[in-house]
């Protein structure tokens, strides 16, 4: 089975000015990982039509699926729908189903601004949302979802079951108290030997308070292989005498 | 004074698989905002040479400054230095100053893996780091820094004072309890009127527990203008009768 790939576009000035911390990208990364879909690239862009258009066109060509977050609400700074429409040379129209959903909920309060949330590009299909009713949509391979995390989660929950998934990647991790440089040679050899089998080995030094740990992660679509590679890593580390036994920050690497 | 622009590249498989949450991008966004440098775009890419090379080449052409995070340690998955060198067609050499720094700290423990951290592309200059000593570097307009947050912060602290900054953007925000759609028309008009003066107005509905708030943000390099625009917004909202007085999630938009 061919592995499916994905890209992600987080849209919004508030993220790039540091005003708001995005959490949707890492949520998406975890959900895609669990689904066996490989997230290859993520981009953060401003609420500027040309920036959104370029990112959508580039990523939708490169990857099987593209997920966007943000900019589909009722205010002036919500320009994602029109930008996606422009990217695909499609006009925007008032979708009947979306209109009905909003009419049922809002009744007389369905003003012009709310009606904007029922407009999608020709060729698009709705993504339903049980949290606030206003739908997202997908067009070709681009899934256009809200930025508010609870709504993003709900929309992704609607979308994911319908996608073609790959075999799940197993991820095994172990914590060590060796400086990264001491295990580099041994780990590099093992990583090189198994790269052709699609095994990805990562080495992540992390600071915890004033001390540090080293996390080694083995990822593979074959769980037995991942386990045997991790065992080989542990055996090779057992012979290593650490160049530092201090656990301070200076001996992290 | 011409405004300086920036791009950001977060490098690492661990981010794109959701294993690790990146915090460097939002830290950088805040620091650049405080410095008056506009962060225009951020990308997350894998530890794959071609992916890093493409991102570096594209962003270094588009923006005044590019900041990278991750992949400059001693292990096999740290391929940022070689990738940046490849992007700029430069060979990598053992920098004397970096070598001396590492030698002084590590002494006899300065093995081949640690020596890798003293190698930088020709034409690069060091970025010092008082946390773990191993330096980052910059080449042309690309600032190559570590992924471990404490080290990234230290390196950015070395770099920022040396950059050309713009006038600081003032950001004024107010919380309202109106659904986003009710203020859309009034806010859209004001945003349209002041866009030519470089005023950026954002509208951010947020969920807090089971309730919600609406945050309006006005950003401008002229603080007096930002304040007067916010006053105009508040005055225009005062006349609005909310279509919902419920504060539940359904009336967020």
TrEMBL record, chains A, B:
CDD domains membership: cinA
Domain of life, per lineage: Bacteria
SUPFAM superfamilies tied to this protein: Molybdenum cofactor biosynthesis proteins
Domain MoaB/Mog as annotated: residue spans: 7-166
Residue ranges of the TM segments: none
One Pfam family from the record: FLAD1_M
SMART domains, sorted: MoCF_biosynth
InterPro entries xrefs: CinA, FLAD1_M, MoaB/Mog-like_dom_sf, MoaB/Mog_dom
Protein name: Molybdenum cofactor synthesis domain-containing protein
Organism for this UniProt entry: Candidatus Deianiraea vastatrix
Lineage of the organism: Bacteria, Pseudomonadati, Pseudomonadota, Alphaproteobacteria, Rickettsiales
